[in-house]
Amino acid sequence: MGEIRIPELTDAHRESFPAFIDEWTAVGRSCDPMDRKAAGEGVTKAYAAAGLAAPQVFFAASPVGGAIMRQIILDRLVRAGVGEGVWAGVRDGVRAGVREGVREGVWDGVRAGVRAGVWDGVRAGVRDGVREGVWDGVWDGVWDGVRDDVGDGWQRECWWGQHDAGWLSFYNWFAQNGLADICAPLEGLTLLARSAGWCWFHQGFTVISDRPELLHDETVTGHRRALHCADGPAVTYRDGWSVWAWHGTNVPQWVIENPTIDKIQAETNTEVRRCAIESYGWAEYLAAIGATPVDEADDPGNPGHRLRLYDTPEQVYDTPTRLLVMDNASLDRDGTRRMYAETVPADIGDAVSAAAWQFDIAPDTYRRLERAT
Predict the structure, then answer these.
(1) Among 284, 286, 302, which residue's Cα sits nearest to residue 294?
(2) Band of the pLDDT at 336, cuts 50, 70, 90?
């Protein structure tokens, strides 16, 4: 590509990273209604950059609605007697064409236009931060929800719109720092990400879905986020389609809104069962099943609070284990102190040793603690 345009990352470059992470994480988490005009323009530009004619655009209110609409259109094409060869072209190939003709072309151009250290620095400083907050924190939960409700096959030819924020933020940084000409083919996908949700690219037509209406998540660590809402859906779209999640794990609606002992005991999925017990409350659950601690003691790391060690019922976990029930060392934002539970090996015999095992220290050391940190 000729002259290297960004020979090294300067302090000014690095100082721009946090703003890019915030900007593109906001794109990926946006709950603004879809801008249909901008989304349509983005699709037209993306197709043009790949050498394809502009498609007819259809709009859906949610990813599930989009997946269903896509299938209805494809089924109508079959009923209309589209030949097998044409059908294969309608069904497949456009995503690959856009990827190879646009994204990979830009990839090669940017790689040739910067040093390896610059590439790695922007990837670690911008892209990975956005991915943690969007791809890992929102996209995967919505993906699981669509898969559960629609089944397989819906993901063919799918682009993720706003949830492509991770890799698009990477190239957008270069576009704003000397490589605008190389990154120009991504203008359509960038506009689409800033204006809409998931979309399906096919020859002749595109389906674009709206962004969520409501989104509830939590910071796990650093930029990493996870879907979570303790009293309702974590994600809701404008057609009512929703995803329920407990600290990053997708769960059935009842786990959040109506957990009961009978439903917990009947649940066969270990992760869902654990989430349901946490939603119900460990103290309430253990009292309801008549569990009694095998040992309890004052908590040396959390003065004024108790440690309780239980044998877990066989239906809670897949392998023999014990459960250490503790009070959180700090108050939650609402001023309450949450009781939580952690599993420990089944051969640990007392509550203090179980707490020490959690901190990976010797029991005698834990007994001398003034406060756990």
Answers:
(1) 286
(2) low
DSSP state of 212: P
The label of the residue with tokens 């389609």 reads 241
Q: Which helix (H) or strand (E) holds 40?
A: helix 36-49
How large is the average pLDDT for residues 129-135? Answer: 89
Q: In this structure, which amino acid lies at residue 133?
A: G
User: What is the 8-class DSSP label of residue 3?
Assistant: S
Helix spans in 184-301 (H)? 187-195, 253-257, 261-266, 270-280, 282-288
Q: pTM for the whole thing? A: 0.82
Beta strands 295-298 and 339-344 are unpaired
- State whether the Cα torsion 182-188-194-198 is positive or negative: negative
Q: How many Å is the Cα radius of gyration of the chain?
A: 25
Phi-psi region at 87: left, alpha or beta (left = phi > 0; alpha = psi -120 to 50): alpha
Distances (CA, A) of 339 to 90, 279, 290, 315: 55, 11, 18, 21
Task: Write the pLDDT tens digit of every residue in 48-75.
Answer: 998 889 999 999 999 999 999 998 988 8
Closest CA to 23 of 227, 211, 188, 223: 223
Question: Range with the lowest mean pLDDT among 16-20, 220-224, 272-276?
Answer: 220-224
Extended strands (E) in 222-358: 224-227, 235-236, 242-243, 245-246, 249-250, 295-298, 306-311, 322-327, 339-344
Other C-beta atoms closer than 10 Å to the C-beta of 70 total: 26
